[in-house]
Amino acid sequence: MYQHVLVAIDGSDHSKRAAHHAMQLVKNHTEAEVTLICAVDYGKSEKESNRGLTSEQIAAATREYLAPFEDVFHQAGISVKSVIVHGAPGPAIVSHANEHPYDLVIIGSRGLNPVQEFVLGSVSHKVAKRVKAPVLVIK
């Protein structure tokens, strides 16, 4: 089964469902480890910088945000760790995933229609297309 699973977390309901699916996949495998990944794009974080937050404070807030997700996995007896990457979510997640030996990447999808995806882009589509490991997209 899957021993090293990467789960993208962005705060959306879709990413929460992705985390839940990861838990279901590995809950009976004691050797499995889940890595939660959250991408912070400081270039897009103008509202945070306008509030006077430094990049260190944004990173601390992100770690604080990920803590409850980690707690749920710990309570289920699943080994979990968190990683914060910097940059646009799609390329940052792809880069991290391809640099580490993950068996599976799980990511939520907003379910954009083809026109919305073409105009807006889709992080899940970019990840599914460019990551070397299998990718499970959760709708």
What does this structure look like?
This protein is 47% helix and 22% strand. With 139 residues, the chain is of the alpha/beta class. The protein has a five-stranded parallel beta sheet with strand order 3-2-1-4-5, sandwiched between helices. α1 (13-26) links the parallel β1 (4-8) and β2 (33-40). The two termini are 22 Å apart.
Largest sheet: 5 strands, parallel
Secondary structure: number of strands = 5
- Strand order within the widest beta sheet: 3-2-1-4-5
Q: What is the percent of helical residues? A: 40-55%
Order of helices and strands: EHEHHEHEHHE
Q: What's the helix count?
A: 6
Strand fraction band?
15-25%
List keywords for this structure.
single chain, 139 residues, alpha/beta, five-stranded parallel β-sheet, 5 strands, globular
What is the topology?
Blueprint: E1 4-8, H1 13-26, E2 33-40, H2 46-50, H3 55-75, E3 79-86, H4 89-99, E4 104-108, H5 114-120, H6 123-130, E5 135-138
Parallel strand pairs: 1-2, 1-4, 2-3, 4-5
In a few lines, what is going on in this structure?
By secondary structure, the chain is α/β, with parallel strands linked by helices. The protein is built from six helices and five strands.
